[in-house]
Amino acid sequence: MQVTQTNADGLKHEFKVVIPAGHLEEKVSTRLAEVGRTVRIPGFRPGKVPMGILRKKYGSSVMGEVLESAVNDGTQHALDEHKLRPAVQPKVEITSFKEGDDLEFTIAVETLPEVKISGLGDLALEKPVAEVTDVEVEQALQNIASRQEKTEAAEKTHAAESGEVVVIDFLGKVDGVAFDGGKAEGYSLKLGSGNFIPGFEDQLIGAKAEEERVVKVTFPADYGSDALAGKDAEFEVKVHEVRKVVPAVLDDELAKGVGLETLDELKKAVREEIERDYTNLSRAHLKRHLLDQLAAQYDFGVPEGMVELEFDAIWKQLEKDKSEGRLDAADQGKSDETLKEEYRAIATRRVRLGLVLSEVGRENNITIVQEDLNRAVMAEARRYPGQEHLVFQYFQKNPDALNSLRAPIFEEKVIDFILELAKVTEKVVSIDDLRKDPEDETASEAADAAPKPKKKAAKKKVAAEE
């Protein structure tokens, strides 16, 4: 095998590989002999089939196997010989081959840049924290109570008020024609909930049982259905019943309704849940501060192939958001050229940060163990109460889905490692400040763990375990 480097330009390398015809023929003959020991051909005992017949019957497929193996071996040899770490799958092109002649092919590969990590202990980070107040706990309890409230039928002469429930049939029409999704019977609607089109609920205030009304509304311009967006509509509504809301009382019985024994236990559980929420918010801000500092500290060329893969994922999500009317306000009105320029910069930063975190993990032997994966699966299962067993089955039957958890786990472990070294100080802030999107704190474009378009576009971690 002859390997010649034909180009070395930064992270881009190209090679020409020549594999002698004799080497290929030897591999083909060896493989045909293996086939001959097991294949059954009428008129011949196993292991006694003449090589000529084997070559005629299986030569073409065996040659395909040998060529594929030779290309893989030659590519790996070129990478190993020059101590290169490919960033993406190398591009291989066979330039010359005819049976009986040498195999010639070229390899084009982008490599990972050399990243020198230093000064992690010098990072100075600020972690915003907020205290859980009794007012917030009380508000959370009231929210729980509102979900436990009951209703009772009002007198037929009672006029519906905001906050009460009307049980209705309705049929919606645009230009006198009924439309899909505009009909329901026995629907319970809480007036003032904002669940229906603006203006719909207001026009039912004062309605009584057995009353019929025509409700006139205009669908919002940004309504999810293009066929209805901005259109005037009329709903024929029949009120069957008006029901008054009976508020739930904050007591032990309410606590038992949500699986606890006493109101004090419920208060404690609510406070702990809010504290966990605040802890997660604090970490999100702290992580953003860390990523911003790393982005400012490390500036090196990144593989174009990795950037394109990242950008393609972002752009695909953005186009999906655009088609569903969920494009960020900041992106609306911009040309595709402008958006592509902005998002390619985001993709570049994400790749660069991913390489930094990956190198920190590699240098410090940070790895993923089975226990890490088990915890991640448990966390996913907790997101679907009552369906946990289905989540477990999904990951058991889909190894690729399980492997997809590795990159975010690895990233969080690397972040934890860096934070242990960095100088972190706490700053008490208001809950409003803590709840602000960490992405909005700085002007730089982020590569965070759960990006939303502009920031939300590709839901993937910035680092991947090598």
From TrEMBL:
Protein's UniProt keywords contain Cytoplasm: yes
Main location class: cytoplasm
Keyword Acetylation belongs to the record: no
GO biological process: 'de novo' cotranslational protein folding; cell division; protein transport; protein unfolding
EC number: 5.2.1.8
This protein's GO CC annotations: cytoplasm
Disordered: region residues: 432-466
Pfam families xrefs: FKBP_C, Trigger_C, Trigger_N
PROSITE patterns assigned: FKBP_PPIASE
Reactions catalysed, as given in the entry: [protein]-peptidylproline (omega=180) = [protein]-peptidylproline (omega=0)
Keywords: Cell cycle, Cell division, Chaperone, Cytoplasm, Isomerase, Rotamase
Segments forming domain PPIase FKBP-type: 163-245
GO molecular function terms listed in the Swiss-Prot or TrEMBL record: peptidyl-prolyl cis-trans isomerase activity; protein folding chaperone; ribosome binding
Class in the EC hierarchy, top level: isomerase
Residue ranges, compositional bias (Basic residues): 452-466
Function: Involved in protein export. Acts as a chaperone by maintaining the newly synthesized protein in an open conformation. Functions as a peptidyl-prolyl cis-trans isomerase.
Family that this chain belongs to: Belongs to the FKBP-type PPIase family. Tig subfamily.
Domain notes from UniProt: Consists of 3 domains; the N-terminus binds the ribosome, the middle domain has PPIase activity, while the C-terminus has intrinsic chaperone activity on its own.
HAMAP family: Trigger_factor_Tig
Name listed for the protein in its UniProt record: Trigger factor
